[in-house]
């Protein structure tokens, strides 16, 4: 699938609540998502004309943080996430950012592998991060407790 098949539309603040349900695919706590929904830049993701998900970035100094990337289940496992990452790494490099960060749960084995394949390295661990969530989260038989933070130079 070529990059031309994936279309990103930057969303205005007034449009974001319509896309919050997509962000909940990747971050299960509505209160947490609502806490960052209006920050940074958010884009819808369309693949061959069909809405496939959303992505949200926040910024601090020369660092861009991938706060949430969510693809519908039928769009996963096809190399689309890899293309999306490649596009935004290049995009924010051109914008002058020096580093990209992303965090995922200690239980998100697939995400941990994905980010390392995309050139990210573990930078730190935020202990007990997921204990603030309203309900306990389990993936791969592991409770999400800590957030593993990754970073890569742009």
UniProtKB/TrEMBL annotation:
Name of the protein this chain belongs to: GNAT family N-acetyltransferase
Domain N-acetyltransferase span(s) in chain numbering: 6-152
Q: Which UniProt keywords apply?
A: Transferase
What Pfam family is a match, any one? Acetyltransf_1
- A Gene Ontology MF term for this entry? N-acetyltransferase activity
Q: Which SUPFAM superfamilies match?
A: Acyl-CoA N-acyltransferases (Nat)
> Lineage of the source organism?
Bacteria, Bacillati, Bacillota, Bacilli, Bacillales
Source taxon at top rank: Bacteria
Q: Which PANTHER family match?
A: GNAT FAMILY N-ACETYLTRANSFERASE (PTHR13947), LD18367P (PTHR13947:SF37)
From the UniProt record, list the coiled-coil ranges: none
Where does this protein come from, organism-wise? Answer: Peribacillus deserti
Q: Which InterPro entries match?
A: Acyl_CoA_acyltransferase (IPR016181), GNAT_dom (IPR000182), NAT_camello-type (IPR050769)
